[in-house]
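Hi C.,

You asked whether I'd gotten around to modeling the 131-residue construct. I have! Everything is below, sequence then structure, no commentary in between.
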Amino acid sequence: GTVFNELELRTGSNLTSSGEEGRIKQKKLATELQLAVCDMPYPSKLVEIMVQALGEGTGRCGSWHIKGKGDTPFFRGRAVAYEASMSGLVNDTFAVVWRIETLADTVSLEAALEKHGAEGCSILIWVDVAE
């Protein structure tokens, strides 16, 4: 489901909603990206991989390309990424969790990094591109 600001999350994210427009946008995204039952284990595995990379303390970026095998519908990979991002948000795994779909999202990310401070923080940026 959608995470609303009532949770008083300390993490900076554009995956939470504020105001009616934000709630509508996030509800639409959550509805579009329903996780298939057969994909249930994958978000936690992805988070595990990301946390392990953070634990290595290399100070480097990790990047993961999520794509299903064969004829797997594209939305399934997006659903896994959405659930993994939400998990990183709710569990405070990352100081900032941001979904980039448009150029405007990169501008708002810059503002969020200034607000929350980027130096020394774990940041998850999900670049959500159409196939």
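If it helps when you're writing up: The longest strand covers residues 96-100.

Thanks,
B.
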